[in-house]
Amino acid sequence: MSAPSRVRLRPATETDIPDLERWDREPHVLACMGKEAEEGPADWHAELAFYAQCGEVLIAELDDRSIGVLQIIDPNRDPSQYWGEMAPGYRAIDIWIGEADLLGQGHGTAMMRQALARCFAVPEVEAVLIDPLESNTDAIRFYRRLGFRDVGPRRFDEDDCLVLKFDRADFG
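The chain above was modelled as a monomer; its predicted structure follows.
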């Protein structure tokens, strides 16, 4: 049996913005962002306000060190309509580890397992979606290892992505 993860998720606050802005400039994060990377760092004040309407932004900590971020959104309540018209019962996740020295050590897995548990704690949630760039084969392999299944390719704005889904029936 593996040792319990030391990663924990907590709600992001305005005090996390310097870390979020720094991570937005990291080459490994930029490589996963597609066209959005060309627009420059996100306005994290606006992002936190936006997610307060339709989801949540969580900071992953390892031994009290902020290491990454995870965003969970209810696409049915998303005023931007990024996912288009969506029926209730879904959540969508964005995730990244900001600290390059902590990549490939299982922290992303711990973050995703906690995020899935958080999503499925809501009885109405039937599935969780994720949309990595089609070119991000490492991320796609990671999500498939976790149990996500391919839905298919989809173009979001100017980015070619692969939508994957994790069903409640597979959670356990």
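DSSP finds five helices and seven strands in the chain.
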